[in-house]
Specification:
6-stranded parallel β-sheet, 5-stranded antiparallel β-sheet
Length: 647
């Protein structure tokens, strides 16, 4: 029977575009789920959306939609992004799912009948953006301690959960030495900031808005969004339903991955609810840090948001996943920079990994006609290489089990670095010139092929496309890969034919690439916001007046226009420029009919060197302005003498 592993991400607020910081938890959970599956685990990976609450209702009203209409639109964008990121989730839950709402109502009723929920009156502070209740002592400068925004004084009839009743069991949970909450500093925060000052009963219903799960026996109340949301981890498995096999099989969860800002809900409120229900608590909660940009949290209002889609379009999904999980320690905050991303892509992916793949495949192709040779003459340096490989495989596994993704990838790159050094030490290009060294060359190139094979297995949970591309280059199409092959020195077989591909990660010019990235990111934002008509193209470098004077701008009159004989998009113009005929070829056929241009005056650059475009000479350039689907030829406001200088 295979081992079980249940991993969850927090539910996402359906707010439209999710930026890189939002995707961090899910990318990490996906890598872990893929790793566990490769180790033979029966994995359930849960993600979804948290769709109730006052802030959802407010946004929907502003957009003149019902809350359900609004969240339905947003959920499609979230699923589309998870598709783009190739997230391998097993369950996607929405808190508006009928089955989930029924479980929430059953649990609320159970706890009410048990006496752990009671009716009273709430008076205190509420942060709508965070959907959080706060006491006066918990506020920071009178504001929400989590987001720093204003809170509202709320006074209303409400139901309360006896959170204070579970003060001692919760304290014991943190003090008994088990690894319930990681990293360790998060546990200290919960104990010092919430448990030691003493827990107060939790307000778990609202009456001042309507968008939420109704209290089944008192429908003017809706259930507090955080009470509702955390229950998804068991409602998704079918608890209290006729189909509870998954709950019996996978609960308790092995790990909840959450951002540090919602650790309190998952390690105090959620365990207390489970204790009240006599249900096992999760084995572990891991509260990771934030991804910040230029030392500030990403925020639309600050204009410093970086989105995943443009990165994937420009550099590929594997480069993004690698950077997110290599650059930042999962438990700490990390500073995202475009320069850092591009530099690491050049150094780690193009230089280190790309170079190792290219050199190995090229030399097997050159010296053994593309056939992977057998290991033959072994020397001490070979054992040294394999020792580094085996040591780092062991450490990689240990790091993955502890969610140290950055360190696990560091282990892989230690293998890659040692392998590149091994090439320099063994000098296959020298061995290849000496017939008596052929047996030695076989071993060197076999070892390098084996290293690439094992590196591909190790990076596959993070970079599936890259791993598969390396397998293909090694001549292993659709290989049946198991984790045990990492420990078997004979798992990589000789005899298959390699095939050289183009570089998986071409080097980029960091400075130029940042401009291209900025443009792509802004274009994505504009398109999502409906600002397609608003051009945000960066200006070119400044020039001097002397540079400008080198260009000869003239007014020309169109005498004749014909279609290019060999190119549908090109038009051939005959122009009058101060009584002289000038022929210019221009790529504007999809925007103008030839007959519409005859007699018009256009602006040209008259002193460009002649070139041939598909066999027809062009002496100059007709100027135009373009904007995605539109183009307009430049002209003067009124007719002027042909050949007039434009200045």
């Amino acid at each position: 029977m295979s081992k079980k592993f249940y991993i969850t991400t927090p539910l996402y607020y359906p707010s439209g575009n999710l930026h890189v910081g939002h995707t961090y938890t899910t990318v990490a959970a996906d890598a872990l789920a893929r790793y566990k599956r490769s180790r033979g685990y029966d994995v359930q990976f849960l993600t979804g959306t948290d769709e109730h609450g006052q802030k959802i209702e407010q946004v929907a009203i502003e957009k003149e939609l019902s809350p359900k209409q609004y969240v339905d639109e947003m959920i499609e964008k979230i699923k589309e992004l998870w598709n783009t990121l190739e997230i391998s989730y097993d369950i996607f839950i929405r808190t508006t799912d009928k089955e989930h709402e029924e479980v929430v109502q059953k649990i609320f009723t159970k706890l009410f009948e048990k006496g752990d929920i009671y009716k009273g009156n709430y008076e205190g502070h509420y942060c709508t953006p965070c959907e959080s209740f706060w006491t006066e002592s918990q506020l920071v400068d009178g504001k929400c301690p989590d987001c720093g925004r204003e809170v509202q004084l709320a006074k209303e009839e409400a139901y309360f959960f006896k959170l204070s009743k579970y003060q001692e069991p919760l304290m014991k949970l943190f003090e008994e030495g088990r690894d319930f909450l990681k990293p360790d500093n998060r546990g200290k925060e919960m104990v010092n900031n919430f448990l030691k000052p003493g827990l107060e009963d939790l307000c778990v219903s609202r009456t001042t808005f309507d968008w939420g799960v109704k209290v089944p026996f008192d429908e003017k109340h809706v259930i507090y969004v955080w009470f509702d949301a955390v229950i998804n981890y068991i409602s998704a498995l079918g608890i209290y339903s006729d189909n509870d096999e998954k709950f019996n099989k996978y609960w308790p969860a092995d790990v909840h991955f959450v951002g540090k800002e919602i650790v309190r809900f998952h390690t105090i409120i959620w365990p207390a609810i489970l204790m009240a229900l006599d249900i096992e608590i999760p084995k572990q909660v891991f509260g990771h840090g934030w991804i910040i940009f230029e030392n500030d949290k990403m925020s639309k209002s600050k204009g410093n948001v970086i989105y995943s889609e443009p990165i994937i379009e420009l550099y590929g999904i594997d480069a993004l996943k690698y950077f997110l999980l290599r650059e930042f320690s999962f438990g700490s905050d990390g500073n995202f920079s475009r320069e850092g991303f591009l530099t690491r892509m050049n150094a780690d992916l193009a230089n280190d990994l790309g170079n190792l793949v290219s050199r190995t495949i090229t030399m097997i192709d050159k010296y053994f006609e593309g056939i992977v040779p057998e290991r033959a003459l072994i020397e001490e340096i070979d054992d040294s290489l394999l020792a580094v490989v085996n040591e780092n495989i062991f450490e990689y596994e240990e790091n993955m089990e502890n969610y140290n993704f950055s360190e696990a990838l560091s282990n892989v790159w230690k293998i890659i670095s040692r392998s590149n050094k091994y090439i320099d030490e063994t000098k296959p290009w020298v061995l290849g010139k000496e017939p008596e060294s052929k047996e030695r060359l076989k071993t060197v190139l076999y070892n390098l092929g084996e290293v690439l094979f094992k590196v591909s297995i190790l990076i596959r949970p993070f970079m599936e496309h890259t791993a598969n591309a390396i397998f293909e280059q090694l001549g292993l199409d659709n290989p049946d890969i198991s984790w045990d092959m990492l420990k078997d020195e004979n798992s990589f077989e000789s005899g298959q034919r390699v095939s050289k591909h183009s570089p998986m990660f071409p080097r980029v010019d960091v400075k130029k690439e940042i401009d291209r990235w900025n443009e792509a990111n802004q274009k994505f934002i504009d398109e999502r916001n409906g600002n397609k008509d608003e051009l945000k193209i960066p200006f070119k470098d400044e020039i001097s007046i002397d540079d400008f004077d080198k260009l000869d701008f003239r007014v020309a009159t169109v005498k004749e226009v014909k279609k290019h004989p060999k190119a549908d998009r090109l038009l051939v113009f005959q122009l009058d420029v101060a009584g002289n005929n000038r022929q210019i070829v221009s790529g504007i056929a999809e925007y103008y009919k030839p007959e519409d241009l005859v007699g018009k005056q256009v602006i040209i650059i008259a002193n460009l060197k002649p070139i041939k475009l598909r066999g027809v000479e062009s002496c100059g350039m007709i100027l135009s302005a373009s904007n995605d689907d539109e183009l307009s030829v430049l002209t003067s406001l009124k007719n002027v003498k042909s050949g007039s200088v434009v200045s």
